[in-house]
Amino acid sequence: MFGYALRYGFMVCKSSRVVNRKYRLRGRVWIEGSDGTFLGYGRVVLLERIREHGSISAAARSMEMSYRHAWKLVDSMNRQSRKILVERSTGGKGGGGARLTRAGEEAVAEFWSAYADFRSFLAERNRRVELY
Fold it and tell me: How many Å apart are CA 82 and CA 67, to the nearest integer?
């Protein structure tokens, strides 16, 4: 008589014979430049939060990220891009701020388009995964 235990999302009988296993493809997508990662999921979310909050520090706080890390990511994206993605303003009466440029908006849209295509590919290809 065999007993069964659910481990790691598949059934294994105590005799170590696999009873039911389902595989799926998983992956991540990012846009890479000569200096490494240019845009990825987290960077694009940061850009969207900058758009929403109007500042790098508020965007960083909303993601529970240090300002320094957020600033480094923005600086990296701006340096790698042909056009500035985030425009920063310093000081003044109301303090500084940041906003996405048109190029920044286009970069966000392009990434989400590629991300949707990638997810569609994975969903379609997962229907045909057959491993033994």
Answer: 24
Asked if 86 and 77 count as a contact pair (C-beta separation under 8 A), the reply is yes
How far apart are the C-alpha atoms of 30 and 28, rounded to whole Å? 7
Q: Would you give the distance in Å from CA 45 to the centre of its chain?
A: 7
What is 31-126's CATH number?
1.10.10.10
Question: What are the backbone dihedrals phi and psi of residue 43, each rounded to the nearest 5 degrees, phi first?
Answer: -65, -40
Query: Which element (helix H / strand E) includes 12?
Result: strand 10-13
pLDDT in tens, 40-54: 999 999 999 999 999
Q: Which amino acid is at 20?
A: N
Cβ(96)–Cβ(89) under 8 Å?
yes
Residue labelled with tokens 């995964």:
129
| Burial of 4 per CB tally in 10 Å (0-12, 13-18, 19+) | exposed
Q: Strand 18-20 to strand 10-13: parallel, antiparallel, or no bridges (unpaired)?
A: antiparallel
**pTM recorded for the entire structure:** 0.78
